[in-house]
Amino acid sequence: MKSVGVAILGLGVVGSGTYKILRDHREFYRQTQGVDITVESVLEINKQKALALGIEESKISDNIAEVISNPNVDIVIEVIGGVEPAKSFVLAALHSGKSVVTSNKELFCKYWHELEKAAKRTNAGLYFEASCVGGVPIIRTLIDGMQANVIENLTGIINGTTNYILTRMSREGLGYETVLKDAQKLGYAEANPSADVEGYDAAYKLSILSSLAFHTKVPLDKVYREGITGIQAQDITYGDELGYVLKLLAIGKNGEKGIEVRVHPAFIRKDHPLASVNDSFNAVYLKGDSVGDIMLYGRGAGDMPTGSAIVSDVIYAATHNDVKYATFKNGAAAEAGVKFVTDFKSRYYIRFTAKDRAGVLAKVAGIFAKYNISIVDLIQKGEDCENIPIILITHETNEYSVRRALEKIGALEDVVSVDSMIRVEV
Amino acid sequence: MKSVGVAILGLGVVGSGTYKILRDHREFYRQTQGVDITVESVLEINKQKALALGIEESKISDNIAEVISNPNVDIVIEVIGGVEPAKSFVLAALHSGKSVVTSNKELFCKYWHELEKAAKRTNAGLYFEASCVGGVPIIRTLIDGMQANVIENLTGIINGTTNYILTRMSREGLGYETVLKDAQKLGYAEANPSADVEGYDAAYKLSILSSLAFHTKVPLDKVYREGITGIQAQDITYGDELGYVLKLLAIGKNGEKGIEVRVHPAFIRKDHPLASVNDSFNAVYLKGDSVGDIMLYGRGAGDMPTGSAIVSDVIYAATHNDVKYATFKNGAAAEAGVKFVTDFKSRYYIRFTAKDRAGVLAKVAGIFAKYNISIVDLIQKGEDCENIPIILITHETNEYSVRRALEKIGALEDVVSVDSMIRVEV
């Protein structure tokens, strides 16, 4: 039977989960995969933490060189996160010909090309299923399951923290700050939540997933990004009345005009399969030219789901010798010929507050008409007040036009404020 | 660049779709997969059909020996369906060392072991992603994406015809026969629909999927099977009132008591992700011990989705040399030590008609109590009639008890008929 020794760099949440899975399933993998996988070394400064997991003292190290030079280690699992020291550690492992399995989306999204080059130099493998959407095997699916398709678009709910917050805001009618505080207490959000709530985490993942889906490097700086911090509870309520739920979407499209990649809050129809992806669940909805619509749904984070993806990669690395990279032609930057769409099209939910005077709607309608924006739906609320909220949904139009129209509307004498502009997708 | 020649056996719906995908994506696969895939031969009696697809006359044959002995053919795609002549053709291909890609669930479910033995003898590959759930890469996911997990259960909507029929019955309140006729007219159901509506097709797939998920042969004869032909529109309506939708489910469980595999109509909660799998869409919901809940959703049939799965297998076969089988330890029959659960547990929706007399409910409740069945929900309809329908939902109980209780209830003087018993899952 083939023996494979692994090292785990870092026993944080994911590292500990990975260790437990490997420890508890050793016999199962021997039986079902024909591979004997053992943890030969862990890099962890907190020795007590490692001992508490039942790891032998001789296998615990605080010295990366020692871990990597261990001749029993074939595969190095990097679960430290962030760029440094993870990057140096991964490169050191690859330089010594050890294959690397990583869950590090930021590192992978920013330095994929450099890591892949280093891996190829020593014929080491490089696997990153755990970097995107936790336990959902989306990367394996893109590489080995949907590779017969030209992928036209992908739409994902790929950040658990923001989906948890938006789900609770929707269900309970609470404000963003209230739910955020609760999410922090419950461990669903970090003390500094900006990587999640500002959309960075989703943008890292979208850069990786759309690079794979569209077979060309989609650099992070091409991803339009907008978080959920400005979302107001009343817009979720009005959206609900109109048949929509609000999600932080990651959208990638590959069309005639070029590649379009964006992360932002968006309303989606209640009957769309993505609408029932709630709490900390994630999902990716894909359209392939042959297969049509596909959706993968599951846990996007957590010790065991992400550990599952890591161990799946370890087993894959141990059983497949000829597929070591999910490569695309070009390198670190966007390919010369590839165009990126920035003035994208969407439908729009718009809320503004107007004085309750005759003629204001006519003026607003006139401005929309001038920019060729047609309106699908309009609600006027609270007719007895001096200032009334007006909510409308547009037909598909380009974002530039909407922004210009809203500037003009905001400048109208009878318009108190333009309050919200939320894209309406799927 | 690696060149791979394929033969397609049969230009039916799936064969034609596969041909079109290969023809239209040749350059795309050269660029993205580094493989040049060409169709070198097709087996098709109807030469005009082949010519109409643009296939060169020299590549069209009605002689299987000629197709298989063609030295340019590396991979044989079998899309004939049914056991014979597909089985002989597949065995002949494997005997000559050609790898086989098949969409044939009946053949695969019944003769998997024999085909795998033949393949191993000549080191040919054997791939069957297209046999289950069309374009959804469920088999690749079980083998290469969730292999780190002990899979505890799978619940699937894996037959498009029945899902189409049930979706329309639910939406439009129509009866089974009416929708079936319409489905036949629209091409969603065969002239002889029994393979679909009696649950055979789902049972074939469940046998294959649960064998893979549970790493042991789950023979077809272990699958409990019940179709949708007896479903009455009013039960769908009552279920809706109680918060459920009706689906034909394929359920596989692997627990302490053994393996449980069954195909039957079942009510599921409206807020479960499977509930929004409508029309001819399919989905498989899986629970792994590490990853938790996962769902894969997509088109379960059709020329292009199934063709997508076939071509994905062709590319996989061309790019992976070391993973050729999705093998499990035992052979054709169930392994000696494996137990199969037959008296399974579920919750139950029960409808019966009773005379509108005092005391009938007390008698019924007494019988349920005797069999230790507790009732969660009860609706009594149409209080002004002589005979009234009574609908109830039970807590989880074993099927044997429910069947016995219903016999006793049916024998009560005040009970006119026991009309429906539908399991309630997830």
Description of the structure:
By secondary structure, the first copy, chain A, is an alpha/beta fold. The first copy, chain A, is built from 15 helices and 17 strands. In chain A, strands 7, 8, 9, 10, 11, 12, 13, 14, 15, 16 and 17 form an eleven-stranded mixed beta sheet that branches. A six-stranded parallel beta sheet of chain A has the order 3-2-1-4-5-6, with helices on both faces. Chain A starts with a strand and ends with a strand. The model of chain A has no long low-confidence stretch (mean pLDDT 94). β12 of chain A pairs antiparallel with β12 of chain B, so a sheet runs across the interface.
Oligomer: homodimer
Q: How much strand content do the residues of chain A show?
A: 25-35%
- Work out the radius of gyration of chain A: 24 Å
Largest interchain contact: A-B, 58 and 58 residues
**Average pLDDT for all residues of chain A:** 94
Provide the low-confidence segments of chain A as ranges.
none
Helix percentage range of chain A: 25-40%
Number of E-type strands of chain A? 17
Query: Structural class of chain A, please?
Result: alpha/beta
- 3D shape of chain A: elongated
Counting DSSP H or I runs of 4 or more residues, the number of helices of chain A is 15
- Main beta sheet of chain A: 11 strands, mixed
User: For the terminal residues of chain A, how far apart are their CA atoms?
Assistant: 49 Å
